Amino acid sequence: MQITFIEPCTADIEKMRFKAKFSRDIADILPYLNRRIKSGQYNDQAKTLTYNQGILMITIQPDILSVAKIVNESEAYEMSDAIKDLINETYDMTDELTPLYEMRKKPSAIDIYKYLPKTNCKVCGELSCMAFAAKLISTTKSIEQCSPLYQQDKQDNLNEIIGLLNF
């Protein structure tokens, strides 16, 4: 894989984005990656897999990798290496994995909100449980930040949310 450009990010002016070209067409591995990356949005017709990793926005196409919201050039090289390793590991696992060709339905903030405590306690750092639900979906917050969900009587709700987030 070779990085073809690094430039300022259009999604966040304080960050950068990059594109890299794969050394070979990886269209055949995308459905296997879709099986492994639970939060991925795969489009079989377009042959694209898009997912977030923290604040990073990653799109994998048969011949191109695009990553937005990186901090610097060094992170671009680290991410390209990490994704190359993920692709190679997935290729090695194709005998063990069933390819997934469908696009997963991403849960909405309301789907998540239904299972939150709805106390607006702000322990998570958000003004409301609905705001927290939206941040969970965008992966800028983690479920562990809602300590009321970890009370004994909320275990079923916690499990439902974890299931939704692992769509």
Q: Structural class, please?
A: alpha+beta
Strand segment tally: 6
User: Which percent band covers the strand fraction?
Assistant: 15-25%
- CATH superfamily assignment of the largest domain? TATA-Binding Protein
- What's the number of structural domains? 2
Elements, N to C (H/E): EEHEEEEHHHH
Which term fits the overall shape?
globular
Could you describe the largest sheet, including whether it forms a barrel? 6 strands, antiparallel
Strands of the largest sheet, in order across it? 1-2-6-5-4-3
* CATH classification class of the largest domain: Alpha Beta
Low-confidence stretches: none
Spatial separation of the terminal alpha carbons: 29 Å
Rg estimate, integer Å: 18 Å
- Briefly note the CATH topology name of the largest domain: TATA-Binding Protein
